[in-house]
Amino acid sequence: MEEKKEKKKKKGPGRPPKNKPKSPKIILGIQNSPVYSEYNDIELIYSEPFIMKKIFSFIIGQTDTIHCNFKKDKFNILCKDKYNSNQIKITLHGKGLQRYYCKQELNIGLSVSYLEPLNKKLGKQFDEFVWFSEKFDKDKFTYIYIKRVSYKDSWNQTKYNLVGNYEFIDEKIFDDYNLDDYPLSFQLQTKIFKDIITDANNHKSTKIYIRQNGKNSPLIIEYTPECGRYKTYNPFKNLEEIKLKSNIGVDESFSVAILVDRLKPISSIIPSDTIEFKLSKTKKVIMTAKLDNSVIEITILTEIVLNNESFNK
Asked: What span, in angstroms and rounded, lies between the C-alpha atoms of 146 and 149?
């Protein structure tokens, strides 16, 4: 008998990919010396330029200038939004980057308008993002290079003038809180968060209320239009799905109000899949988002409306 010929595996529909899959990058983390130039006092190398595009897109929608804070173990981008309602910190942890070198702490200011052309061209055609400062002019200029995938040694290189007129933001304000003051925390998918804020805005609601009536009760996000003729509820009954942690009493009622206008610029362009909320009756809301297995963390502080009256069922 003739041996049966092996059937050829059918190719899927569509064109084959033009670019070969990227080989995994080696994560070297925090280093004791620069690799590109001995004159570099700062050297940040990251193999995910497309994630940097998401970060820059988020920043561009929030502010005019940013405070860049390079430390020995991490890089922070700090700013306030245009309405002075939200304080924002974006941290790139050096240990999770391809390479990170910082000779000594450096604080610089950068105009967001400079980043817009860079952000428009950032895409999957680049596979390495390098941000560095040279010791000779670190108080005047900073540099961002992005490496093309298709060529071994082809870079898009940009030299940026620094700005002196920027608001210095102390990183400590993001860490200066006691978890005991935050009895309620939960996590939402960012698309759900965006949907709720968009809906509240479409109903011309000025505030959203987040409440829980007793420790084991559903978490409810609610709002009412200016006319006050109806209310909209978003109950989350499966507390595990939203990773809710509640330290309120079984018979205790907890409620916090936040202005919709403060949440709109965050919800519309937050670059993560999920966002975590920590809530207090007297302190700012703490929102956190993580990207690339927590290599990048975004922390946002937002004012609450004090002495609010929650809706009653």
From this structure: 10
Which token pair is 37?
Answer: 């130039």
| pLDDT value, residue 310 | 45
Per-residue pLDDT, 213: 95
pLDDT-flagged residues of the chain (< 50): 1-2, 309-313
Bridge-partner residues for 43, per DSSP? 101, 132
What tokens does 73 get? 């173990």
The structure's pTM equals: 0.88
Q: How far apart are CA 14 and CA 293, in angstroms?
A: 31
Instruction: Give rounded-to-5 percent helix, strand, coil for the chain.
Output: 15, 35, 45
Nearest-angstrom CA–CA distance, 160 and 166 = 15
All structural domains of the chain:
40-172 (3.10.150.10), 177-302 (3.10.150.10)
Specify the pLDDT at position 84: 84
